[in-house]
Specification:
Helices cover 53% and strands 16% of the residues. The chain is α+β, with helices and mostly antiparallel strands. It has a three-stranded antiparallel sheet with strand order 1-3-2. 19% of the residues are buried.
Amino acid sequence: MPRGTSEVSEPMFFVLTALLNGPLHGHAISKLIQELSNGRVRPSVGTLYGILERLHERGVIAVDREETVNGRNRRYFRITDDGHALVEAEARRMQEAAALVLRLSPGRAQAWGVPGIARG
């Protein structure tokens, strides 16, 4: 979510998606984002923690708990109800956008089994 808007960037979408199955700490979030995106989305540590901070400020994620592992603090984040609503709305928006492209591209629409729009 760029500041001041309700838009969700691709890395933010993957952070929220990573948290759908339960609380995770930063490193686990990063690894899962890479897995979910087939390696396409690889936020740096600084970028990831900036995203986590912004999502936390917006109330779409919350700190679930903190623990110390090998002398280092580890903070676990969880998605909130507002976060669930946001990521689901973004998924619907992307699905609608993809359907539009498939509808307007008759050759590709047929390959996907989606009825195309006849062009004149």
